[in-house]
């Protein structure tokens, strides 16, 4: 029984935590605020006036839609690839012992532990050595590489929680390997995979650095934003898009939380 | 490599590496659009990749996947040497004959009498300044960005000036020294011996103490003038025009020391997959209309004299304003090489690393 | 009588760990067979060898006369009740119980009925729609039992199924299990480290230590006639008398065991043996008092009826016991 | 109950799945190979292969004039990497990464601690969302928001002015190293944005580590006479350390490699990420860019090795 | 005699849950005091109130005559041995034991010596350099004990310290704890839900149910003279005789308890009471046999010495017991 249930936090801690959270959130509010400013070219503070016109403008910009479509496609396929690879890897690492197991878990973490620019530049130079032209698939490859770990972490945490005897119980009751996978393993890791998949999606959706190196001339949403922020036409449109994206990516994150909250943390959620 | 023999049908696509503001399709101001019509006429869909420095352009061309590049003088010869661009067949470009003679055989695109592109536009790197800070005493010398001084508004220039974030800026320092330290014997700001080079770097180190952030991107420079209290900097007429159009208190001059400048050439990639569209584009860009429009928008000068007259956007005074007649005062960008008129000069790669060092505080 | 499980010199070594070492045993059909031993003595490993989760590294296993090596668990008509129950958390109780039938391809309606019957048998009718998380420990244990029994296994393996339950519940489940086994006639192999449990439930007991069987026999055999000092020590809290003491009592043996409840604090009557010593300590155990008597350095525990009260600590007493309760043992 | 097994050992299954299942059961190594094959092919061959190919390039050099790579083995690029200019960049970046990591941990800890130890039920969910919201808001837009805040004529100045505290800001800006013309062109500004953007990556692992500290260890410490401060120092902090290390893998590595933040908010002094980006993209000097990437690889390699030993991976 | 801990009408409510409800108790210095009760009955909460981890919502607590409310745990000379030991996993065994001294600012050398002495006292000399993870359950338990004792607390609180140990180890630890308490003279407050443990170790026992003390007295009192049906049921496996049966035996009471070991399967001798019934079930428990006799629907358990053997199931038997063993109880 935790004593904290009845005790409340010391005041100093409350203040520090609240200040920290405020630090994290005020700039976000600003992003939202400037989605409504009437000023188009530069950001003035305080904004001279408020308007909702940018939502309509953003809606009617074909470049926004093109970038959005590409980002959604990349994130979906990268997530799918990460789901398959991450799950396979998690299954191998958590269900069996083999020489080099530690090395594999290190290898999976490497793409997020190394700065994105390294992943990006390495893949880019590999593409150029192998004479692979930039395409949708080169972006996807880069994204899936660092998304694997998100799925892997979630799946491994869940695999650890499925007691080994559950799988043995299934076999004991007459289920062969495939039946055991279908009826016991899959239902038990499903929510973890869903959570991992959602985080992978959100991660891919916001990736700038790796994309810069693997996209060639294609624009994903973050690349579009970078371009827009540096060479603005209608600056508030960028904020509108950012705000909508925050709100939209937020739903899967919320979902992931509720799917995994009892038990494993959202492993590798950051990233 | 043999140039193209005859013009065929357009391939439907064309990708161009260029400076920001060089190729407009009316997105910022619908009056400035020299792409839409071209696309309609030729069916060549244009995609534009902007680059902030010449080095970036060279890197993009080395990487491949582009058809054309509007290379400045400090990039063009490197591209030729690296065999990244191909000679062009001037016969396939009817307007070739209309080109300003000063540009037609310019050394930055002509090697052994072979042309590696069509001139686009040229212009000076002007001194842009904030008219409120300078009140009624506009600057006359690059001194304001090289040495600490009190500006007419009574405050120091420290932290309020900028310089270009590209190694070629060393030439601006050399240009300044040419006027102020004649005993160094600098004849050409792109050809510096060790002593001259050292003096230029020393000057740049002084400049570092004045500069908060170097400008790398035209748009970010505009932001800095608006939000960061920057009041003077070397710049392109493009930024000046853009800010003036936004009613910012901005003006520019060509200081007494003269200026560096750029003269850009549209060059065709050695492995271009859309050479026909490329040739069509080169021809298109040489029309007085496009030349005038680009010059008006960017604050540059046309390579086709006819553009100076009768262009609605440029107006008849435009060429004079943009320095069309100052051609002689402009020391055009070119790549510093070891072999030079002084015998041995400091090559470009040292400019690159030393300039990074100077900005880094070394 | 058919032999349900036969271990012929079976070993299972993990590297240098001899989890199971040259074990011979033969369990008869319908028998309630208990495996008793301290932690790490190889009980679970034996069970896993029967279930097919482990393969022997030596020896031979037969189940109802058929070779078991190389047969995966899902092809053995042997079911297990796991120590932690291993109920499928994502399935309802009914689906848990019907699982074995489902993977065998039995139709939905039929398996529902069979599962409900099984739940009724373990006295959980109507619990089918719940989830395992909504049941108490004892209830889960019964679901695990039903889930195994619904498959009509020839052999049911139970790995410390009552280990996690508290005393009251445990006693109740012991009775239920025992009567279920009687009525179904299935062979039960039951693992426990609780001697009381093994004694009260099993037909025969194998006492394990260090991967080997120390003694195999009926509860009375094991309790009253321990073959080794280890068994004497482990099964009930026996007194182990040294060779010295044995000699003085006229017994030729390296060691002898003497159950506390066979000793009385009283002068010897007809033919009884006796020793004298001083009371070293005592404690009240409810039904009995435990009095430890120091006999020339050897400590002999006496279980005397609580009604007799405590002699004062340090007082001199005589203890007596029948010669037949002194049981000689082979080895240390 | 219908099934009555005739035999105790059931016959082999004849379906493909059944036979395959038997096969895998007898040959678990084949199954393992099938599981590990695809991810290893992807990560071990494609990803690691690319990394090695990149490293290989660092042993080539570049022709200064044409910008083309000279494919001959040389250490010249590493000599170049160790020049003063480039060492400055490395030291600057590593120091920034270290300070950012330290301060991120400092700010993150109370948040993580509160979330792990005190927040319950709805509050816990709220805390989680409050951490995730900034984490998943567009990274670029956040940086630009900071540019607005930190600019000389930006929001912070506006606030300081309103509060009559402008002198304080100006005093700070006159300090050596951390100062500058405005916050947005100073190390202070770069630092603030780095901390802001990466700090959420620190909170979650610390929270995870703290949640794993059994509550009764803290009670045990109190019970033995440890005051709250002592309990933090001797029990809570050491046990949260793997979480901090796990979080610092992110903050450290992300700072080492980022090139967007210091370019948008900074003083034009390069960081490793910018140098790599510039060498690769602007200068086309792939060998030097590759040599630069060796620095974060070596640092992160050592870091990961240490983290693994501390058990930080469980907190990732 | 000094009062070590005094609870004056103490309550601790969590919302509507009355974890501890108007409890009065006074524990004497040097006493071995046990709190016994089923899960959720409030034992731990009582302990936590003494340690200072909880504050009472009503009533008053004194420790050695001083008001305890509002005094944080780290300012009470009361130490706890936690149920799961709560050893610091990141510290060596020695540092664990020395922890209390370290936070008090005792010098390194001095606390090392004290910690080593404490480890020797719990028979773990030389284990100082290990980590908690490298010890077995019983060893950890002893480290937890040493860690508490090194601070020389006035009161030592033990929350089911033996719950996780297996039977043998548990018996051994019981003895060690008991003798340690005797030699140190520290007041022990011991929580358990194992009646045997409470009976054998404690000087006095408080039996808890639903946050209240049901009975407080010596082990004999509690075992032989249960005041409520709950106590009779919980402490030992007593037979509870209904009013009906009581009346037939000439006893005017709502209920009466009768210990199985007070019953014999034999015709009554002088002055004994007797009932007749049939044998319902039986099991071998080692020292005794447990025989359940059905007396007109009421089941009465009899503990008979194993030496007497089993009467066949279903056979008619007469059971007899002394009138004084029939203990009337107040309520249900
Ligand atoms: N997979 C394995 N790898 C290595 N050693 C093992 C493995 N399984 C069991 N062992 C070892 O074999 C020995 C016997 O283990 P087993 O689980 O059979 O004991 P047990 O009698 O069931 O003990 P408990 O009462 O603690 O469950 C132990 O020393 C154990 O550590
Ligand atoms: N912090 C708390 N918040 C709410 N309810 C609590 C809290 N602590 C204890 N309780 C409740 O108070 C009651 C008594 O709990 P306590 O832990 O004291 O029981 P216990 O006798 O120690 O049981 P066990 O033998 O299971 O340890 C239980 O119903 C429990 O759920
Ligand atoms: N929330 C997105 C932050 C961007 C960081 N991406 C890191 C990816 C590392 N390869
Ligand atoms: Mg076991
Ligand atoms: Mg408790």
Automatic annotation (TrEMBL), chain A:
One of its GO terms (biological process) is transmembrane transport. The chain crosses the membrane at residues 12-36, 64-91, 103-122, 134-152, 181-202, 238-259. It is a multi-pass membrane protein. It holds the Pfam family BPD_transp_1. GO terms for cellular component: plasma membrane. The keyword Membrane applies. It is found in: Cell membrane. InterPro entries: Bact_Polyamine_Transport, MetI-like, MetI-like_sf. Belongs to the binding-protein-dependent transport system permease family. CysTW subfamily. This is Spermidine/putrescine ABC transporter permease.
TrEMBL record, chains C, E:
Pfam families: ABC_tran (PF00005), TOBE_2 (PF08402). Residues 5-235 form the ABC transporter domain. SUPFAM superfamilies: MOP-like (SSF50331), P-loop containing nucleoside triphosphate hydrolases (SSF52540). Coiled coil: none annotated. One of its GO terms (biological process) is putrescine transport. Keywords: ATP-binding, Nucleotide-binding, Transport. GO terms for molecular function: ATP binding; ATP hydrolysis activity; transmembrane transporter activity. It comes from the Bacteria. The keyword ATP-binding applies. GO terms for cellular component: ATP-binding cassette (ABC) transporter complex. Belongs to the ABC transporter superfamily. This is Polyamine ABC transporter ATP-binding protein. It comes from Sinorhizobium saheli. The lineage of its organism: Bacteria, Pseudomonadati, Pseudomonadota, Alphaproteobacteria, Hyphomicrobiales.
Automatic annotation (TrEMBL), chain D:
The chain crosses the membrane at residues 30-56, 89-113, 125-145, 165-185, 191-210, 231-252, 286-306. It is found in: Cell membrane. The keyword Membrane applies. It is a multi-pass membrane protein. Residues 90-307 form the ABC transmembrane type-1 domain. SUPFAM superfamilies: MetI-like. GO terms for cellular component: plasma membrane. Its main location: membrane. Keywords: Cell membrane, Membrane, Transmembrane, Transmembrane helix, Transport. GO terms for biological process: transmembrane transport. Belongs to the binding-protein-dependent transport system permease family. CysTW subfamily. This is Spermidine/putrescine ABC transporter permease.
């Amino acid at each position: 029984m935790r004593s904290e249930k009845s005790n409340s936090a010391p005041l100093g801690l409350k203040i520090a935590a609240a200040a920290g959270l405020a630090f994290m959130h005020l700039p976000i509010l600003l992003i939202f605020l400037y989605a409504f400013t009437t000023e188009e070219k530069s950001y003035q503070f305080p904004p001279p006036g408020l308007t909702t016109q940018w939502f309509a403008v953003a809606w009617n910009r074909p470049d926004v839609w093109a970038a959005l479509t590409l980002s959604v496609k990349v994130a979906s396929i990268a997530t799918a690839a990460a789901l398959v690879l991450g799950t396979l890897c998690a299954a191998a690492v958590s269900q069996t012992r083999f020489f080099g197991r530690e090395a594999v878990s290190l290898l999976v973490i490497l793409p997020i532990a190394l700065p994105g620019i390294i992943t990006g530049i390495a893949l880019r130079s590999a593409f150029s050595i192998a004479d692979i032209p930039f395409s949708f698939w080169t972006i996807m490859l880069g994204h899936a590489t660092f998304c694997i770990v998100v799925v892997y972490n979630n799946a491994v945490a869940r695999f650890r929680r499925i007691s080994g005897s559950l799988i043995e119980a299934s076999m004991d009751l007459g289920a062969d390997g495939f039946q055991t996978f279908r009826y016991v393993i899959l239902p038990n890791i499903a929510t973890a995979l869903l959570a991992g998949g959602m985080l992978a999606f959100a991660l891919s959706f916001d990736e700038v650095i790796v994309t810069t190196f693997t996209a060639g001339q294609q624009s994903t949403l973050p690349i579009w934003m970078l371009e827009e922020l540096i060479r603005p036409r209608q600056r508030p449109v960028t904020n509108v898009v950012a705000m909508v994206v925050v709100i939209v990516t937020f739903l899967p994150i919320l979902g992931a939380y509720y799917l995994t909250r009892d038990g494993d943390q959202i492993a590798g959620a950051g990233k | 490599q043999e140039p193209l023999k005859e013009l065929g049908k357009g391939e439907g696509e064309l990708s161009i590496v260029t400076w920001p503001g060089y190729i407009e399709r009316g997105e910022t101001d619908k009056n400035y659009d020299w792409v839409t019509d071209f696309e309609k006429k030729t069916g060549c869909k244009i995609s534009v990749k902007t680059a902030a420095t010449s080095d970036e352009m060279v890197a993009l061309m080395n990487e491949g996947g582009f058809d054309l590049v509007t290379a400045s003088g400090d990039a063009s010869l490197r591209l030729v040497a690296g065999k990244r661009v191909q000679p062009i067949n001037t016969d396939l470009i009817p307007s070739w004959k209309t080109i300003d003679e000063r540009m037609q055989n310019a050394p930055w695109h002509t090697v052994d009498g072979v042309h590696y592109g069509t001139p686009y536009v040229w212009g000076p790197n002007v001194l842009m300044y904030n008219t409120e800070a300078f009140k009624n005493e506009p600057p006359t010398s690059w001194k304001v960005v090289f040495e600490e001084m009190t500006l007419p508004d009574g405050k120091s220039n420290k932290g309020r000036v900028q310089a270009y974030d590209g190694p070629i800026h060393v030439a601006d320092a050399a240009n300044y020294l040419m006027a102020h330290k004649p005993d160094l014997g600098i004849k050409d700001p792109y050809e510096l011996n060790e002593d001259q080079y050292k003096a230029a770097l020393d000057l740049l180190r002084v400049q570092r103490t004045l500069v908060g952030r170097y400008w790398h991107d035209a748009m970010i420079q505009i932001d800095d003038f608006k939000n960061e209290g920057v009041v003077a900097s070397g710049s392109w007429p493009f930024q000046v025009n853009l800010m003036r159009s936004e009613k910012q208190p901005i003006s520019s001059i060509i200081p007494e020391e003269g200026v560096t400048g750029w003269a850009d050439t549209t060059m065709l990639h050695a492995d271009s997959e859309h050479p026909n569209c490329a040739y069509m584009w080169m021809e298109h860009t040489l029309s007085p209309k496009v030349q005038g429009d680009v010059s008006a928008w960017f604050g540059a000068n046309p390579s086709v004299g006819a553009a100076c007259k009768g262009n609605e956007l440029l107006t008849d005074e435009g060429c004079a304003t943009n320095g069309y007649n100052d051609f002689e005062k402009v020391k055009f960008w070119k790549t510093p090489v070891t072999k030079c008129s002084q015998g041995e000069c400091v090559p470009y790669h040292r400019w690159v690393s030393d300039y990074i060092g100077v900005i880094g505080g070394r | 009588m058919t032999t349900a499980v036969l271990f012929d010199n079976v070993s299972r070594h993990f590297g240098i760990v001899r989890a199971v070492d040259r074990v011979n045993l033969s369990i008869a059909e319908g028998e309630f067979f208990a495996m008793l031993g301290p932690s790490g003595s190889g009980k679970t490993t034996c069970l896993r060898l029967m279930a097919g989760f482990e393969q022997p590294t030596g020896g031979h296993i037969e189940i109802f006369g058929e070779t078991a090596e190389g047969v995966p668990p899902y092809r053995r008509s042997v079911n297990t009740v796991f120590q932690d129950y291993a109920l499928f958390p994502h399935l309802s109780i009914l689906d848990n119980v019907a699982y074995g039938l489902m993977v065998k391809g039995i139709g939905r309606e039929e398996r529902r009925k069979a599962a409900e019957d099984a739940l009724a048998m373990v006295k959980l009718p109507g619990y089918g729609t719940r989830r395992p998380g909504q049941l108490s420990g004892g209830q889960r244990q019964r679901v695990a039992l039903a889930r195994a029994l619904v498959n009509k296994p020839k052999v049911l393996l139970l790995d410390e199924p009552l280990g996690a339950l508290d005393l009251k519940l445990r006693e109740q489940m012991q009775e239920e299990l025992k009567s279920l086994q009687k009525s179904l006639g299935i062979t039960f192999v039951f693992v426990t480290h609780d001697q009381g449990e093994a004694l009260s439930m099993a037909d025969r007991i194998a006492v394990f230590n260090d991967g080997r069987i120390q003694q195999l026999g009926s509860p009375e055999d094991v309790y009253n006639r321990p073959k080794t000092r280890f068994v004497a020590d482990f099964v009930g809290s026996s007194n182990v008398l040294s060779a010295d003491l044995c000699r003085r009592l006229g017994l030729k043996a390296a060691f002898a065991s003497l159950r506390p409840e066979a000793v009385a604090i009283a002068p010897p009557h007809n033919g009884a043996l006796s020793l004298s010593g001083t009371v070293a300590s005592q404690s009240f155990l409810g039904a009995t008092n435990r009095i430890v008597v120091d006999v020339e350095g050897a400590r002999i525990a006496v279980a005397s009826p609580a009604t007799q009260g405590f002699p004062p600590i340090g007082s001199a007493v005589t203890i007596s016991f029948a010669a037949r309760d002194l049981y000689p043992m082979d080895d240390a | 109950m219908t099934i009555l097994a005739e035999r105790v050992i059931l016959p082999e299954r004849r379906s493909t799945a059944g036979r395959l299942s038997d096969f895998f059961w007898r040959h678990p190594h084949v199954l393992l190979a099938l599981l590990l094959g695809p991810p290893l092919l992807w990560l071990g061959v494609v990803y690691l292969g690319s990394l090695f190919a990149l490293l290989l390039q660092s042993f080539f050099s570049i022709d200064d004039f044409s910008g083309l790579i000279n494919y001959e083995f040389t250490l010249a690029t590493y000599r170049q990497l160790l020049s003063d200019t480039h060492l400055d960049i490395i030291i600057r970046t590593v120091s920034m990464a270290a300070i950012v990591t330290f301060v991120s941990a400092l700010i993150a800890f109370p948040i993580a601690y509160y979330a792990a130890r005190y927040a319950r039920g709805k509050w816990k969910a709220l805390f989680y969302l409050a951490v995730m919201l900034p984490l998943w808001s567009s990274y670029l837009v956040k940086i630009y928001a900071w540019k607005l805040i930190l600019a000389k004529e930006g929001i912070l100045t506006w606030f300081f002015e309103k509060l009559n505290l402008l002198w304080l800001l100006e005093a700070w800006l006159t300090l050596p190293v951390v100062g500058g013309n405005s916050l947005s062109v100073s190390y202070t500004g770069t630092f603030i944005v780095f901390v802001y953007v990466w700090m959420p990556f620190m909170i979650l692992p610390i929270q995870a580590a703290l949640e794993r500290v059994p509550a009764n260890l803290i009670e045990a410490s109190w019970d033995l006479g440890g005051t709250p401060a002592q309990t933090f120092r001797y029990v809570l902090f050491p046990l949260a350390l793997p979480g901090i290390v796990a979080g610092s893998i992110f903050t450290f590595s992300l700072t080492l490699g980022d090139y967007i933040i210091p370019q948008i908010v900074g003083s034009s002094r390069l960081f490793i990420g910018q140098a790599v980006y510039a060498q690769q993209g602007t200068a086309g000097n792939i060998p030097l860019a590759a040599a630069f990437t060796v620095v974060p690889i070596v640092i992160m390699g050592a870091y990961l090795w240490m983290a693994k030993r501390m058990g930080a991976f469980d907190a990732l």
